[in-house]
Automatic annotation (TrEMBL):
This is Protein S100. It holds the Pfam family S_100. It comes from Chrysemys picta bellii. Residues 50-85 form the EF-hand domain. The keyword Lipid biosynthesis does not apply. It comes from the Eukaryota. Calcium-binding protein that plays a role in various cellular processes including motility, angiogenesis, cell differentiation, apoptosis, and autophagy. Increases cell motility and invasiveness by interacting with non-muscle myosin heavy chain (NMMHC) IIA/MYH9. Mechanistically, promotes filament depolymerization and increases the amount of soluble myosin-IIA, resulting in the formation of stable protrusions facilitating chemotaxis. Also modulates the pro-apoptotic function of TP53 by binding to its C-terminal transactivation domain within the nucleus and reducing its protein levels. It is found in: Cytoplasm; Nucleus; Secreted. The keyword Mitochondrion does not apply. The gene is LOC101946427. Keywords: Acetylation, Calcium, Cytoplasm, Metal-binding, Nucleus, Repeat, Secreted. One of its GO terms (molecular function) is calcium-dependent protein binding. SMART domains: EFh, S_100. GO terms for cellular component: cytoplasm; extracellular region; nucleus.
Length: 101
């Protein structure tokens, strides 16, 4: 029986492969694959509709080795950044709650 953190890690890997396998290199996300993944799997990350320039900026930030694809290592760094953002949000909320008491 899988526990939540192990399940979350498995979801990170399987989600990456679900999109990376669609076209071209099966183990890397192309720009189109990354865009589809962000839109469908991280809708709250895309709270406002991202325009092409913003998406291009994210793509070039993530593509550390500049091969125009996002491999799993690059994707994992991105997820870590998103997780840190969630952690900051959680900490802010928690501090607000504590101040009210
Ligand atoms: Ca890359």
């Amino acid at each position: 029986m899988a526990v939540p953190l192990e399940q979350a890690l498995a979801v990170m890997v399987s989600t990456f492969h679900k999109y990376s396998a669609k076209q071209g290199d099966k183990f890397k996300l192309s720009k189109a694959e990354l865009k589809e993944l962000l839109t469908k799997e991280l809708p709250s990350f895309q709270s406002k509709q991202m325009d092409d320039a913003e998406f291009q900026k994210i793509m070039s930030d993530l593509d550390v080795n500049k091969d125009n694809e996002v491999d799993f290592q690059e994707f994992a760094c991105f997820l870590a950044c998103v997780a840190m953002g969630f952690n900051d949000f959680f900490k802010d909320q928690r501090q607000k709650q504590l101040r009210k008491k």
